[in-house]
Amino acid sequence: MRTSALISTDQALKLINEDNAIVLDATIDKVNEKMDNSKLSLIPNSQFFDIEGVFSDHKSGFPHTMVSPEQFSKETKKLGINQDSTVIVYDRWGVYSSPRAWWMFRYMGLEEVFVLNGGEPAWKAAGLPIVDDYRTPEAQGNFKAKPNYEWFISKEELVERLGDDDFTITDARSSGRFHGTAPEPREGLRSGHIPGSKNLPFDQVLDGINYQDDMELQRLYEGKIDSGKQNIFTCGSGISAAIIALGAYELGNDYVTIYDGSWSEWGADTEVPVEKD
Question: Does residue 69 sit in helix, strand or coil?
């Protein structure tokens, strides 16, 4: 039976008490806002899922590029993650980078992975215990990545498929960046969007620290995704694309594909087409 990827604090409490549970803080800084790490505020038994460090391919030239299956396996084993682990991911913003961690695990073949809706702020607001340090895993895990390529698309494949009608593209950037009326925060990138894509700014699918309810999500995604097609999500660097991808998953779309290079790659390549409207 298909289960939701989003869990409440009550559901997280039950999962965390299972023997095979792994709790991961997947926090990263936002583009123009940094998290204060001078005093950590964490859910008990958390480990750090280092998206910008060991879980990014720094040789790619683009931010947050997905690592190889071998690298992913190596680093998840260090976190004590096994083939049968249940992984609970959260971030200290509420919902920002935790969906990226969720997508990475799903792409690499782990199905029992969940995002805490509202993250650490929701946990704290519920009056649940907070700690100020990460735990050290007791033993090495045995997880081995087996990528599911329906969750991932490259620039080359996307270029080849432009003009086909068997997929949708939804862009999580702001309206101004999507339409080319606002500058890109990264230097050297053209303005505009991938031809044929639709715009759904990621902050619209959130209600403060939580996701919008299903009724509002249905309204927001209307005309942008199609359950009978492959739904591809993109953004600036692959982080907020995962936010709207998770929203689409919650609406019943089993395979949500992320264009990992996103605008950091597409906007820098003068050989690929760009639309402005």
Answer: helix
pLDDT of residue 230: 96
Specify whether 155 is located in the same domain as 225: yes
In a domain? residue 221 = yes
Gap between the Cα atoms of 27 and 146, Å rounded: 25
Catalytic residue among 122, 235, 242, 245: 235
| Tokens found for residue 236 | 């600036």
Per-residue pLDDT, averaged over 133-159, amounts to 96
Amino acid identity, residue 152? F
Q: Where are the alpha helices (DSSP H) in the chain?
A: 9-16, 69-78, 98-107, 119-125, 155-161, 175-179, 214-221, 240-250, 262-266
Q: What is the CATH number of the domain that holds 246?
A: 3.40.250.10
Do both 110 and 192 map to the same domain?
Answer: no
Amino acid type, 80: G
* Residue 1 confidence class, pLDDT cut points 50, 70, 90: low
Which pLDDT score is estimated for 2? 60
pTM of the model: 0.97
| 273 catalytic residue (yes or no) | no
Angle at 133 between CA 107 and CA 117, to 5 degrees: 45
Check whether residue 95 and residue 17 sit in a common domain.
Answer: yes
Question: Among the three residues 81, 116, 147, which one is the final residue of a domain in this structure?
Answer: 147
DSSP string of 141-152? --------GGGE
Q: What angle do CA 98, 196, 175 make, to 5 degrees?
A: 55
